[in-house]
Amino acid sequence: MSVSKVLLCGGGNAIHVLSSYVSSKPNTHVTVLSLFPGEAEKLRNAIPPEGVRCINDLGEDVYGKPDIVTDKPEDIPGDLDLVIFALPSFTHEMYLKALKPYLKEGVAIGAMPGEGGFDLCAIHNLGSDFVRNSSLFALETLPWACRIVEYGSCVEVLGTKKEVEIIVSPKQGTTKESVTELLHGFIGEFPKFDPADNFLAVTLMNINSVWHPTISYGFYRNKNVTEPFDEPPLFYYGADEYTGEKLGKVSDEVLEIKRVLIEKYPSLTLDALHHVSEWMLRSYGDDIGDKTNIYTMLRTNKGYRGLTHPMREVEVDGKKKYLPNFRYRYFTEDIPMGLVVTRGIAELAGVPTPNMDDVILWCQEMLGKEYIVDGKLVGKDLESTRAPQRYGFSDLDTFMRVNHYLDHAETSKNTSAINESNTSKAIPQ
Length: 429
Description:
The chain is α/β, with parallel strands linked by helices. It has helices at residues 13-23, 39-46, 92-99, 118-126, 128-132, 176-187, 199-204, 207-220, 241-264, 276-284, 294-300, 329-332, 335-349, 354-367, 396-402, 420-426; strands at 4-9, 28-33, 52-55, 62-64, 68-70, 82-85, 108-111, 135-139, 144-150, 154-160, 163-169, 192-195, 311-316, 319-324, 372-373, 376-377.
């Protein structure tokens, strides 16, 4: 019987769960790769002989021990069936570059979760032909809420999600179901994977990239961010009417991108792209006490009760105080891997985004970064983002074609044929 070969990249909570689940399957060879200095050795030495114990919320505990834990890409098997990234999105490019010499076409490779532009990052680093002849996927979120109980030894799944949206770009001649069935075989029956339309739709519907930066901007816009708080302020329940209106305006700009794209490419499917107010109602329904507008929905959603802004503790006159933590993922991921990606697509589509720009300009100041300069994505830190411009794209048609968004869509009659030299310029290898 053939052996399935799986590579798991990372070393945190999700990798502990995956190591247990996947390694417990018969006829499966599992490699864990961590490029974080010292992490692979620490994890390898911490795993007991019986493997990683996963306290499973849906049944009996699971035990599984990976075959290899390494920090060397050359140690991975050469004929992998599946590669899963379960690590921060800003590290994806580092791993793709390190793995490129050792990966073969046909592999299924994806991220849990995948922030906006994961496909752009993969195509840029692995090449368009490699991605076309392989299967690329990304989950909108992790399949479970989980936490490490004892590093290397025990992890607990606090809750398995019922359904998770997945974006799949299957290799030529295969279906999306071939990838979801592969994942279910290793992860289990739940969560159910709901295939989304395409990577572009999910990149534009990256709710975190609108939610977290805009709410942060709205709350701190008139405050001195160097003045400590006595307690961490409420994130959603602390939003004001201005913030609710700003969220709506940013979302309006995203929907204008959708309108322009559909008008230019009539067969393009972007059905997964909704206004944030509709997303709130679909996601939380009766948990929302007052559905009048975005502001009232934020402040009366039971699911948001008690959640606070990311803060860091400081000591002032011997007392514990709190300052904003602008190194949290709400900023370090949701801006460069989220809202800046959407802003880049808007620029290619010729869609003005004054409200989005307000948020990005404030966030880049808090981060000490530079993305937008004089209304254009030309800042010195663009290389650390997944914006199309970071990968050399300067026109919409090339961007849509090279990234396979138009494989099943008809282009506008006025679109010029894109020759091979233009394509090679668009994706520097």
